[in-house]
Structures are given as structure tokens and as C-alpha cells.
Amino acid sequence: MTPAHSTRQNVGIVVQDNYPLDRDVRTRKMAKSLTGAGETVSIFARNSLDDPDLGAIRDEHPPRSEDIGYAQVYRFSWLLSTWLFPLVTAKLPVNPFWMLWLAFRFRDADLDAVVACDVRAALPAIAAAKLNGLPVVLDLRENFAELARIKPVESPLDHLALNVPLVSAIERLSVGLADHVWVVTRERKDALVADGFSPSKLSVVSNTPLRSEIEEFADRVDDETTRFDWSAFTLVYVGSINRFRGLDLILEGVAHANRGEGEPVHLAVAGDGPDRERLERLSEELGIEDEVHFVGWIDPEAVPSFLDAGDVGVIPHVVNRYTNQTVPNKLFDYMMAGLPVLTTPADPIACVVRTVGCGRVLPPNADGAATAAVVTEMRDAELRRRWAQNGRDAVEESYSWETDASRFGRRCATDSVLRANETRACSGRRVTDRLRRLSAVDSKALGPSSNPMASQRRMRVVRMQTAWMLAVVGLLVVTESLSLDLFFLFSVVGLLLVTELTTSFSLTPDWRRRLRWVLAAAVVASAYLVANRILAILPGGML
């Protein structure tokens, strides 16, 4: 693959959710941007009936392959009609079945580059890409370690999925193995640099809208103007509903603001999540249930009219290390809609609001009374008009996906991975030269066991294999499938994967050659176990 911009590139995007998915705005923007730049885009996704985050269940599985206009979607459907399907397609960063499926799909799609969306998709995508000799960009949309720290444990599986040291280790490993990494804020990039990663490996690609979406916004408002109509002064919120979204503060602010005389303040919430019922009860306790409207998830096409019916867009996120390193899509949606923004002082959001002058930032640790005071100030129509114009102008001139992409050249994803591929090739040549120099050292003087580089590599293999086996045990225990033969089979898959990921560019040391015999024996034993399982489930007399 050469870095010539005249060549059309085949780019694969890997997500571990169903796709298309209304809330996955970033993947849609990425795919449409690449397609608009002349690339061919394939999206590799899940194929489940349920979506726990939305509480939705479909009647039937979508097709395994589907053309959605701006991309070709391929859905992981191995063992679709069996009880093993949920296990095989589980949304786990160490799922070996995802890696194997992706490896086959990447080869068939003849890709030039891969973009892995989030940590859950990273390791399978990186392993599959390396098996096919492809460069990988990791789109690190969230700070998953901090998200694991603040999310409540709601199921037995969460004890594993929200284990902070484990999530941190997987995140660091994913960033280290990727050829290039996108983050959504400067603050997130600075944190990764402080953790020891090279600034040249990290690029900021924010959650800004496509220019085409900005241009289409007014037309979509006209199509839905009668659906949402509040005559009173209304705060609006779009997105998931959970504790760290901070909607408690807005409810308390509305309650304080409505204690005096005059027209009451209303709040309209489009979205859903685990905290919705608690917030509905809280609005009743505060006596504002008539002024608070939970409308649930709405069609993306209806979002413009929902925002157009409001007066102020709110982003009341609880301020912590997680929210201080991310920026939500809704910030730019509000600005695009010409809505003034009311936000808590989470660093990236507050920085945009203050720089652009498109709303107000609440004081640190604001309570209901302080929030009500700011809301009362924002009822000034002239101030709102000025803030709204500033926000809309900023989106049209500076805050767009294309503007972010232009920092890397004409084609954001392709330029990133092409540079990453060149860097990896140069790194490979440097490593090869170093190994050749080391191999020239008198091996009798050093001795095979005293080579520190070889010892480090051996210990790296041991650590990675041990981590894999521990993850396998945890997965099998959680799914109540723990057995010696399944543990052995998954461990062999892990050993094959670890061996491939840690293979040297050039030389093969003696311990690697000996490991081949271990791998061969393990594969033979695995084949024997698989054959026994197949024979056990076949009807009698079939053979």
C-alpha cells in the first residue's frame, strides 16, 4: 500500500454493537466522511436481536450482509441459530471468535486499513488486521477506565467488565498495539502522553458534525415542526439517562426556579437509560412532574424538531476525570440547532462554550439554587439570540468533522493509517537492524539465557498468555460454562494469538522454535477434543 492520494482505499470499520444504531452517531459520521472522500467503506458489526443499552428487541435478525448506501455492513453471524450464538458474539475485548471472524472478513474484503471503534473492538480488530498485514487506527471514543470506575455494578458480569485495573490494562495494551489513535479531546491526548505514549501517535478528532448535517438541519426541522411544541420556556436534553449525566441538578434547578411567580420553566428529555425511573420519581417528589417531560428515545430525524422546540440545551454532566476528557455529540447538536448551551464546568465542554460564547457554564459544585439563578438569567431573549448565533457560526466555520479531518490532509482515516503504516515499516526496519547487530555478538560469550532482550520477550509472552487464561476462566465462570476441555481450547486459541502478536520482524530465537512443537501438540489435542464433542452430539448411527 502506498501513500498516493489518487488511489481509492478500502477502509474497514469495526464495531462490537449492532449497526446501524441510532445512537452510534460517530461511526455514521466517520463512514459518510470516508465515502464522501472517495473511499470504499465496510462496517463489521454484531447481529443480535437485543440491545441492552436501549432496551429494544427486534423480531428477527438483519441480513448477514447489507448495503446501507454509505457503507457495506457485514454482521457476525456464526452459529446464529444455536444457543452458542450469544457466547460466540459476546461484546468482549478478548473474544477470540471475533478475531477469527474478522481475520476471514478482512481477507475477503481486500482492505487497505482498519479503524477499530472503542476498546471492546480493539484487540480482536488489531489481531485480525495484523494477521492480514493491515495498519489499524484505534478510535478511542471514551476513557473506559474512568467510565468503569463511575458506572454502578448492575449484574454479575459487571464485576469483570467494570474491573478498573483490568479495563486499564486492556486500554493501554490496545493503544500500544494500534498504529495510530484518535481521541475526542485535547485533554484525553494529554493524559495518554503523560502515561508514556508518543504525541505523534495520537490525534484529536472531536465529535463535531458533518457539514452535510449542518446544511440539512433546517429542512429536517420543517418536516417535524408540529411534533414537539412547548409554549413555556423549556430546557431540552438529548441522550442517555444515567447518574453521571447529572440530570438531578437540572431537576432541582427547575424546582427552585418555579417557586416564584411567573411563567414556569419546563424540562424535556429525549432519551432513556437505567436512571429514568428514579428521575421521574424525583420530579414527583419535587412537585414538578407537570413541567418535566420524558419522551424516550426519538428517531434521529426528529431530533432537529425536538431541539427547535426548546430554548436552552443542557449538558449537566457530573464533573470527574471521565467527563473532563470527553465531549458529547449533543454539544455540537445544540450549537447547530441555534440553542444556547447550559453546562457544568467539565473541561472540554466548558472550554468550547466559553471560547465561542454560546451559553453559560455553571459554577463548580453548583446546587439547585445556583442552577436556578443561571437559568433565570438565560431567559433573557436578547442574550439567547446572541449565544445562539455565536454557536451556529462556530459550527459552520470551525467545529465540523471535515475541519478536524483537514488537520491530517484530505482524507482523515486513510492519511492517519497510511502514516501509521509507514511508521510501522520504518520501526520494523530499525528492529531488524538491531536484531542483526545483536546476533553478531558472540553467542558463546553472552550465552542464550543471558540475553536480556530474549528474556524480556519470553516474559512478555508469559504475561500475555497468563492474562488471557485468567480472562477465559472469568468468562467461563460468568457464563456457567467452565469445563477443562473448553478452558484448554480457549487457552490454545490465546497461545496462537499471543504467539502471532509477539512474533519478531526478522529473527527466530531458539525458544521460539521450541514453542512451535508445543503449539503443534496443543493444536492436535484441541482437534481431538473438538472431534469428541462433535461425535457426542451426533445422532447414533450417523457414522
- Mean pLDDT score: 81
Share of β-strand residues: 5-15%
Q: Name the strands of the widest sheet in spatial order.
A: 5-6-2-1-7-8-9-10
State the secondary-structure class.
alpha/beta
How would you characterize this protein structure?
The chain is an alpha/beta fold and 543 residues long. It folds into 3 domains: 10-204, Glycogen Phosphorylase B (Rossmann fold); 211-399, Rossmann fold; 441-537, no CATH class. It has 22 helices and 16 strands. It has helices spanning 25-36, 85-88, 96-109, 118-131, 144-150, 158-161, 164-177, 186-194, 211-223, 247-257, 276-285, 303-308, 329-336, 347-356, 368-377, 381-397, 401-406, 412-439, 443-446, 452-478, 484-501, 510-537; strands at residues 10-18, 40-46, 50-51, 56-57, 65-67, 72-75, 113-117, 136-140, 180-183, 202-204, 233-238, 265-270, 292-294, 312-315, 341-343, 359-361. The chain has an 8-stranded mixed beta sheet, sandwiched between helices. Strands 13-12-11-14-15-16 form a 6-stranded parallel beta sheet, with helices on both faces. It has a two-stranded antiparallel sheet with strand order 3-4. α13 (329-336) crosses α16. The longest helix is centred in the C-terminal third of the chain and has 28 residues, at 412-439. It is elongated. The two termini are 49 Å apart. The model is unreliable at 1-6, 408-414 and 423-450 (pLDDT under 50).
